[in-house]
# Entry
Amino acid sequence: MLQIVRFNPWPYVASVSGIILGTVVLSTCMHAWPWWLQALGMLALGACGWLTVGSLLVSHLIYDRSDWPRGQWLQRALLQPNPEQMLNVHAGFDETTVRLRRWLPGAKITALDLFDPKVNTECSLLRARASLPTPPGTLVGSLDAWSVSSRSQDVVCLLLAAHEFRKSHERRRLLEQARSTLRISPSACIVLAEHARDAANFLAFGPGFLHFHSPATWQRDWEAAGLQSVRAFRVTPFLRVWILQPASTQS
# Structure
């Protein structure tokens, strides 16, 4: 949870400053306001407080208290219980490869770093990237050049990473490349895990939910990449997991 503040400090600084300023203004001036303006002021102060405290509580629920850091959700996602080859693709911040290797000790799990300073420019990602050492054996590539053989992977994981590619054509290229690395097998799949731009994440993160993409956007992206969703579920109301496979019309 504290990583959220460390990687995104300024929204929280602004929110806390707003709470302090709002409290001072309301305590000194509210008695002279009409009732409806008092109500609006209290509502605004409450919303600001929720966006500060509530977003941290939700982050704590997801990243510290839910099944997400424990990994049981992964067995729901995999179409085969013991994959041999797994590729974990990220955009420069990788805290999942170590977990995947712990959860699936029998699999060969390779990390692929697609960070591009010209594409991945958000300050929060740059702070996150600087905070965590790269796992041993990480491969380096780009959207158009993956350091992985085609038709070589049982599973390709995109865990809270694909949204860092902000443009639609970038995400579609990412998904196309992921599809090309899958083995020709009925159980080969892509595991896409993301927050969504939906009501639950709006209530949790306020305007910050605009950093995420809507389920409809993700569906358009994976369909354009020749993929289809064969399974979907949530890890808490705030985090969605889609299991993707090549569409039946694709080779």
About this structure: The beta strands are 85-90, 108-113, 139-140, 155-159, 189-194, 227-234, 240-246. The chain is about 45% helix and 15% strand. The first helix runs from residue 2 to 7. Residues 72-246 form a domain with the Rossmann fold fold (CATH 3.40.50.150).
